[in-house]
UniProtKB/TrEMBL annotation:
Any one GO MF annotation of this record: protein tyrosine kinase activity
Transmembrane residue ranges: 34-52, 343-365
Protein name per Swiss-Prot or TrEMBL: LPS O-antigen chain length determinant protein, WzzB/FepE family
Keyword Membrane: yes
InterPro entries: Bact_polysacc_biosynth/exp (IPR050445), LPS_length_determ_N (IPR003856)
Principal subcellular localization: membrane
Occurrences of domain Polysaccharide chain length determinant N-terminal (ranges): 20-107
Amino acid sequence: MQGTQEGLEDHNLYTESDIFDFKKLSKSVWDGKVIILSTIFVLLLLSVFYALKSQEWWTSKATVTEPTLNSIVSFSQLVKSYQPAFNILDADSVLVSSGKELDDLIDTKYIFDRFLLSYNSTEQKRKFLSSSEIFKEMLSKNEDSEVKLDPLTIERWLGKISSETKENKISKTYIAYLEFEAYTAEESNLLLREYVDFTNRNVAEIVFNELFSIVEVKKNELQQQLSFDLNLVQRKVEKEISLSEVAYEIAKGANISRPVSNLQLNELQSIALGTDALAAKIETLKSLKDFTSFSPNLERVSSRLDILNRELPSFDNFQQLQLFTYLQSPTLPLNRSEPNRKLIVILGSIVGLLLGLCIVILRAFRTGFKENK
């Protein structure tokens, strides 16, 4: 019972001590209100100064998705004009395959993937920043020092070009959100438009060159096949000439000049033609220029090569090819992306308040320590 009473007395003692300390701390804070208000005011002024003087950044945005068939119709027609040369037929002239490499070139998803890959390419960004007159002019107006497009300056700006891709679950297509950050709203908008066009031209040229490469590879393949088939047919003709010459000599020795129908000669049946017909046959075979009658495949390969030998049109005719579709074209941003001046001022005020409280509390502890000592 006595122990319980002593415990209650200790508890009351600690409670009274805590209340006393809290009152003392509150009084110290109140007495130091001038210091707290001063630190808030100073930090507020500094944050306002920083918010006003820090570099503004504006971000222009655009939304794009896969190209429509209408936007690539001219290129699709060009690609399809080479399709017969890539078709593979069986012995019954039934289509076995139709050239997947050509189908990929005009697949809208494949084209859009190439566009996004190029847009996000670090090397592509470097080339653009090094060549853009708008970018150079912007730097000359906003940078204090003389403009130098050195690697360090370009590296600093690479992160200002960005994109985010999301999949549309309903249509199974991809949507890309493109961004370009610059010093002013007008500059960010101009640079985004220019970079999108720059990327589009670059990818269009890449796809066009891929078509040229695919055509050249197939052309070489068919030329080798034609050469092989032609060599095979020529050997067959040479063998036929040789057999006919032997038959001619036999027919000549047998004094058979005209066709005979009642001879049973198996492999040497051509003897029955007689020397006159055999001589004409040998002469015809030796002067033969077109071997397609001996091999139908020769005619097919030659026809496919004729298609591939057509001259490709100039890329200049396809520079306006648009490899994406705008869902939202680049527009002038209404609000700057950085700095957030309101947030900076609020954070500055909070830091000032905390700093002032720390100063006052530390002073109170130091004073109490000296009094106790």
